[in-house]
From TrEMBL:
Keyword Transport in annotation: yes
Name by which UniProt lists this protein: TOG domain-containing protein
Statement: the UniProt record of this protein carries the keyword Coiled coil: yes
One Pfam family in the UniProt entry: Importin_rep_4
Primary localisation category: cytoplasm
PANTHER family noted in UniProt: IMPORTIN BETA
Coiled coil feature spans: 535-562
Organism: Euplotes crassus
GO BP annotation list: protein import into nucleus
Source organism superkingdom: Eukaryota
Domain TOG as annotated: residue spans: 316-572
Length: 580
């Protein structure tokens, strides 16, 4: 900074000379500093940069390491951009793209990529559109793969930079060539191939019409990459994201692709079968629910992709592609396929709600079958599927099939199985009860409650809750604590005054949790917060009941005092879940 203030011109000349230092680290650092002090500031006069303009291309040495060449290329582009001399720069880049040395040809496309990032004026892009197309085609047909990949990235960047879709569509005839390069790159250098996948995602997002004529080929290529377990997880995930981006922007184009049903959906299913901890059930049982949600392995990303994709393309295509696949999977001898079948069915429950409701008996039969599977992981997936299906087919599913569903759920909740499975059974019970409460979101109509579907199970279900909550507290299992509290809250809200008889069974224990549980760890804070919510639901449910009214009044006073202490405590922060 001091040297710049004393003699900016001299410092720039010295730093410029260092751009071509024989030491790669020094040269690379000089490029970084030159951009920082002279190109990323408004204080550098154009006249100062013009002194060096003619010398810029002299620093390029094909023998230098790629990292140095790329850094030098970045400096050159940004100097010309600073001078707004785009035409001269483009002419120079075109000249470099025809160089006999592959490293220089690669550099030319790297510079084009940077130029697009810096911003090419749209009028200039339009004026040079034929030249751009020619230079891109030239690079895409180069004999050197590195040049091809660099050209691929520059082509993608240029296309996505175009705001005029008509201009972008002039490049539609090179899409097939791009697909071919993507395949070649993945075979030779997966990292380079992954970069081409990410470029495809961008093109599908900005100009989906480019793929109208190549959709079938795209589905085939994407599906093959997804199925290839030799590739890294991130590569396979990026492949499916191409179709998701295309479907999101051009659902009509994607719906017409017949091989979605034969290639893409089965590829998603195959990825769902690729589970973690395949041979270690105990390790699987220890995995926390939040860890399941945030994972990025093929199984997890495929489930999430299925949910998104089915919402976009709709139920007709999804059901046609999926129903036979599901029926075959859930009867397979391989537990991983059975598990995948139930997850798959559960994750299309929302998008295929209407069609699945037409034969509700068959839908519920398929959804509930996994609940009694002998393999714990399949049983867990079956419970997940059932909970999701109940949510979408409520309240008809509860009213018609409560006799088949509730006893089975309570049996699992009472059993000596993994805590993780008990938690999922409780979660399914929450879905069952919660969806019997139909709340008008506009606040115009009164809340409707379908109490009949649960009347015969209330006693047993609440006894299950009491036992499970004790077990969850003793074993410090937050996920089950949360689900049990949610279930108690839902039951109280559903049966209202009738909950008064159960009030003494739960309220004293809930108050003790607030009084005795420390407010230190995240789990402790969440437990206290969830307990406070449940107390609120219970008190609201029985506020008009005369039964246990004396205890209700005493508890209300006690709770107000406790809440006042919480709100005035120095330990309570604004973001604490207890006060939100």
């Amino acid at each position: 900074e001091t040297a710049k203030e004393q003699d900016s011109q001299k410092l720039m000349e010295e730093m410029f000379a260092a751009l071509n230092n024989t030491d790669d680290q020094v040269a690379n650092l000089a490029c970084v500093l030159f951009k920082k002090y002279f190109l990323e500031t408004e204080t550098t006069p154009k006249e100062t940069l013009q002194v060096l303009q003619e010398k810029l291309f002299e620093i390029i040495d094909p023998g230098r390491a790629p990292i140095v060449l790329h850094a030098q290329g970045s400096v050159i582009v940004k100097v010309f951009a600073k001078l707004e001399d785009f035409r001269t720069l483009l002419d120079k880049i075109i000249e470099l793209s025809k160089h006999e040395n592959a490293a220089v040809r690669e550099l030319s496309y790297h510079m084009l990529d940077i130029l697009v990032d810096v911003h090419i004026p749209q009028e200039l892009a339009s004026e040079y559109i034929s030249s751009f197309k020619e230079i891109f085609k030239q690079g895409l047909s180069d004999s050197d793969l590195k040049v091809k990949v660099a050209s691929f990235k520059a082509t993608s960047s240029f296309i996505t930079s175009l705001s005029d879709n008509t201009l972008a569509l002039q490049f539609s005839d090179i899409v097939e060539g791009l697909l071919s390069i993507m395949i070649d790159a993945l075979k030779e250098d997966e990292n380079a191939g992954k970069a081409t996948l990410e470029s495809f995602i961008d093109m599908a997002d900005f100009h989906p019409d480019l793929f109208k004529e190549y959709g079938t080929t795209l589905v085939d290529v994407v599906s093959q990459i997804m199925l290839n377990t030799d590739f890294e997880d991130g590569t396979r995930s990026s492949a499916k994201e191409i179709l998701l981006s295309l479907a999101n922007k051009a659902p009509g184009v994607v719906r017409k692709l017949e091989n979605l049903k034969t290639d893409f959906y089965p590829a998603l299913f195959k990825m769902i079968t690729e589970v973690t901890n395949e041979d270690d059930i105990e390790e699987w049982a220890k995995e926390k629910e939040e860890e399941d949600i945030t994972r990025s392995d093929p199984h997890a990303v495929a489930r999430e992709a299925l949910l998104r994709f089915s919402r976009i393309v709709g139920e007709n295509i999804t059901i046609e592609a999926s129903i036979d696949l599901i029926k075959t999977a859930i009867t397979d001898e391989d537990w991983k396929k059975r598990q995948a079948g139930y997850y798959y069915l559960g994750y299309i429950a929302e998008s295929c709600k209407k069609i699945l409701s037409k034969d509700l008996e068959e839908t519920m039969r398929l959804s509930a079958a996994g609940v009694v599977d002998s393999h714990p992981r399949v049983q867990y997936a079956g419970l997940t599927c059932l909970g999701l299906m109940i949510t979408e087919q409520a309240p008809k599913a509860q009213k018609k099939y409560h006799a088949e569903i509730m006893p089975q759920l309570m049996s699992i909740m009472k059993s000596d199985c993994y805590m993780k499975i008990k938690t999922q059974a409780t979660s399914a019970a929450v879905s069952f009860v919660r969806e019997l409460i139909q709340v008008d979101e506009q606040g115009i109509e009164e809340t409707e409650r379908e109490v009949g579907a649960i009347e015969g199970y209330t006693d047993d279900l609440l006894n299950c809750c009491a036992d499970l909550f004790t077990d969850a507290i003793e074993k410090d299992y937050p996920a089950l604590q949360e689900e049990v509290l949610a279930l108690i809250s839902c039951i109280a809200t559903l049966i209202e005054e009738k909950f008064a008889v159960f009030y003494p069974k739960f309220m004293p224990g809930l108050i003790q949790i607030i009084q005795n549980t420390p407010n230190e760890t995240v789990h402790q804070k969440d437990l206290r917060s969830n307990t406070i919510q449940t107390i609120g639901f219970l008190m609201d449910a029985i506020k008009n009941s005369e039964e246990n009214m004396d205890q209700f009044k005493d508890d209300a006073k006690n709770i107000v005092e406790i809440f006042s202490q919480i709100l005035t405590s120095d330990d309570i922060k604004e973001e604490d879940p207890q006060v939100t």
